């Protein structure tokens, strides 16, 4: 069996020090295998955003080990982390985070530009990714000409275009109406069915219901880990 | 990530804020244009001096007093000194001697007044010696000098200022309220670098001495040698005569100076060089200010786009790609500004400024453009490194 996509042991994160120290994560263990679709749930302040930042290599843990796709990222410097984000990870944010004044196609091409791919290859793969999220006809629109749901689907296309080991979604439906939320969850479900590993952070039960596995965090600790559908 | 991609991002970033980019570019343009234009003016001025002095003739010598020199008791140049030089037996290689006094005065005619650049009092030989031909009318005569008649020959600029197209011949003008009759108008000479040779009035030596300067010392003595070949001999004769008259022997410091045109040229061009350096320094400062403008705008741009930088970093942009993008934007701004500045400077140098026709130095174009590009790199590097150092989570959280 191949190495798990995520393997964390005793993960800790502390902000500040002394009396004012805030323990965002107090020793979390989690293993996620290839092809899984995990929802991490928790109230605000439960440490789920900290968890996502560390999983996304945007932040480094204070203690514990994190192996992403078999690579221990603990000793990585900034350049190595940015390379890792580019090749192994895809992000979907709550507030879409598309680059303004760059077309949908341009946004999807961006990770490949940083990866150093040629123009033609970028174009082909970006168009394929947009087709996968059902936005082929919007490729040349600017972000401000797209609805929230469409923007988020462009973000999904951008997240998966480099064929990452892991797609991280941070409250991806938080700013969407129920119709767009449904569409987006459909897209994520389809991606997972195609074999993509997805970790999604949410606080809505009906969103979490789409995942195969639900992990609950309370005060920086895992309190329940429930599988809803087989891997 | 290829250089072409970096450039593409930079162009997009600049076009997003067109007005701002144009204004920043303008700062650099003005700096570069100023450097090119001002050095061109300086260069044109020295060329004009060379031409005007070359026009004076190669057989001209100028004797001027040295004030504040090391001489213990400096004696002024006097008319008697000039008379001694005119003695053919002692100084056979000298053709003419023209004693000169220079004064400042205001000329007036029927309520119109004009402050004259140079009022010269001399003898008729001066016109020939200095190649200042009289265009219309006639020069004053030797008898005008001995009789101290109140007659003047005026330059083109003075004629235009006072008579505005009317014929000035035979009319009266007041020099510091003393009436003079205009007998001639000098032919156009043009500017000789820093001063306008046409803004002048020439009157008989004695008249001017009685009216304005007093009969004491002379400003200079203009000596015409027999030919260009004997100029060194003439120079030696002048030195010998004046040394004897002023009691200068052996190693004692001289209280006068004899200069030929070559020496005069170097003195004058030195003055212009100083002036050109000053102009270039001022222009260089304006270029520097333009560079600071770039830093300023790039810092604003970085702050405005913190979130965008965060997104780019989250999807894997390495530091180099981020700093490269902002550095390219800054350099592009300064390069475009520099190019426009070169163009503006070149166009500006087609026009003449107060009689000086600027001549663009190719080295100043290269220098100004090169410096503007370096300024973009230098002044863009701080904002660019600031952008590259942003931490992605903080940048993403920025509203």
What's the SSE pattern of chain B? Answer: HHEHEEHEHEHEEEEEHEHEHHHHH
Q: Determine the strand fraction of chain A and express it as a percent band.
A: 25-35%
Number of strands of chain A: 10
Uncertain ranges of chain A: none
Low-confidence stretches of chain B: none
The largest interface is:
A-B, 30 and 21 residues
Structural class of chain B: alpha+beta
Strand tally of chain B, please? 12
What would you report as the Rg of chain B, rounded to the nearest angstrom? 31 Å
**End-to-end separation of chain A:** 14 Å
The pLDDT mean of chain A sits at: 91
Count every helix of chain B, treating DSSP H or I runs of 4 or more residues as helices: 13
The quaternary structure here is heterodimer
Task: Please explain how this structure is put together.
- The complex is a heterodimer of chains A (231) and B (399).
- Chain A is an alpha/beta fold and 231 residues long.
- Chain A is 34% helix and 26% strand.
- In chain A, the strands form two sheets. Chain A has a six-stranded mixed sheet, sandwiched between helices.
- In chain A, helix 3 (104-115) crosses helix 4 and helix 5 (148-160) runs parallel beside helix 6 (178-193).
- The longest helix of chain A is centred in the C-terminal third of the chain and has 16 residues, at 178-193.
- The model of chain A has no long low-confidence stretch (mean pLDDT 91).
- In chain B, strands 2-3-10-5-7-6 form a six-stranded mixed β-barrel. In chain B, strands 8-9 form a two-stranded antiparallel ribbon.
- Chain B has 13 helices and twelve strands.
- Chain B is an alpha+beta fold.
- Chain B has helices at 3-15, 18-55, 79-85, 125-129, 142-147, 156-163, 205-213, 231-245, 261-304, 306-314, 319-348, 362-389, 392-397, and strands at 60-65, 94-109, 112-122, 134-137, 151-154, 172-175, 178-186, 191-192, 195-196, 200-204, 220-225, 256-260.
- Chain B folds into two domains: 3-51 and 268-397, no CATH class; 95-226, no CATH class.
- The interface between A and B is medium-sized, with 30 and 21 residues.
């Amino acid at each position: 069996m191949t190495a798990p996509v995520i393997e964390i042991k005793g993960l800790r994160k502390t902000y500040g020090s002394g009396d004012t120290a805030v323990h965002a994560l107090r020793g979390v263990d989690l293993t996620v295998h290839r092809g899984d679709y995990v929802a991490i749930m928790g109230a605000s302040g439960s440490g789920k955003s900290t968890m996502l930042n560390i999983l996304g290599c945007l932040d480094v843990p204070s203690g514990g080990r994190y192996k992403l796709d078999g690579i221990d990222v603990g000793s990585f410097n900034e350049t190595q982390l940015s390379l890792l984000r580019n090749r192994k990870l895809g992000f979907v944010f709550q507030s879409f985070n598309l680059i303004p004044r760059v077309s949908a196609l341009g946004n999807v091409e961006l990770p490949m530009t940083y990866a150093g791919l040629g123009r033609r290859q970028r174009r082909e793969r970006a168009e394929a990714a947009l087709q996968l999220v059902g936005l082929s006809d919007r490729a040349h629109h600017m972000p401000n000409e797209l609805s929230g749901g469409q923007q988020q689907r462009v973000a999904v296309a951008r997240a998966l275009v480099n064929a990452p080991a892991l797609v991280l979604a941070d409250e991806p439906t938080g700013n969407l109406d129920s119709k767009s939320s449904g569409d987006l969850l459909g897209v994520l479900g389809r991606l997972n069915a195609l074999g993509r590993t997805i970790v999604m952070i949410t606080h809505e039960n009906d969103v979490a219901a789409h995942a195969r596995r639900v992990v609950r965090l309370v005060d920086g600790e895992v309190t329940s880990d429930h599988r809803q559908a087989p891997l | 990530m290829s250089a072409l991609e970096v450039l593409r991002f930079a162009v997009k970033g600049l076009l997003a804020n067109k007005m701002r980019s144009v204004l920043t570019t303008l700062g650099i343009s003005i700096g570069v244009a100023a450097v090119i234009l001002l050095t061109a003016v300086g260069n044109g001025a020295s060329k004009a001096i060379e031409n005007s002095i070359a026009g004076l003739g190669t057989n001209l010598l100028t004797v001027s007093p040295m004030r504040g020199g090391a001489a213990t008791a400096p004696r002024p140049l006097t008319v008697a000194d000039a008379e001694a030089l005119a003695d053919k037996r002692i100084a056979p290689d000298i053709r003419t001697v023209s004693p000169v006094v220079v004064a400042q005065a205001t000329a007036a005619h029927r309520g119109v007044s004009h402050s004259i650049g140079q009022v010269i009092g001399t003898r008729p030989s001066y016109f020939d010696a200095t190649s200042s031909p009289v265009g219309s009318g006639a020069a004053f005569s030797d008898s005008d000098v001995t009789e101290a008649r109140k007659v003047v020959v005026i330059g083109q600029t003075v004629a235009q200022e006072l008579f505005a197209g009317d014929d000035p011949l035979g009319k009266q003008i007041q020099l510091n309220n003393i009436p003079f009759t205009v007998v001639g108008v000098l032919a156009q000479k043009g500017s000789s670098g820093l001063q306008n040779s046409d803004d002048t009035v020439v009157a008989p030596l004695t008249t001017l001495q009685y009216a304005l300067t007093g009969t004491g010392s002379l400003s200079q003595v203009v000596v015409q040698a027999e030919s260009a070949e004997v100029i060194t001999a003439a120079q030696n004769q002048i030195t010998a005569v004046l040394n004897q008259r002023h009691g200068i022997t052996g190693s004692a410091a001289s209280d006068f100076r004899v200069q030929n045109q070559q020496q005069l040229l170097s003195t004058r061009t030195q003055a212009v060089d100083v002036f050109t350096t000053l102009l270039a320094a001022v222009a260089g400062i304006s270029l520097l200010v333009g560079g600071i403008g770039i830093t300023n705008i790039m810092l604003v741009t970085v702050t405005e786009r913190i979130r965008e930088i965060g997104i780019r970093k989250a999807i894997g942009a390495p530091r180099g790609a981020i700093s490269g993008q902002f550095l390219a934007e800054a350099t592009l701004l300064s390069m475009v500004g520099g190019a426009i500045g070169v163009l503006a400077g070149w166009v500006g140098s087609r026009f003449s400024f107060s009689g000086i026709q600027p001549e663009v130095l190719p080295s100043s174009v290269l220098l100004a453009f090169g410096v503007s590009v370096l300024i973009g790199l230098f002044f863009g590097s701080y904002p660019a490194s600031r952008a590259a150092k942003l931490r992605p989570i903080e940048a993403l959280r920025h509203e």
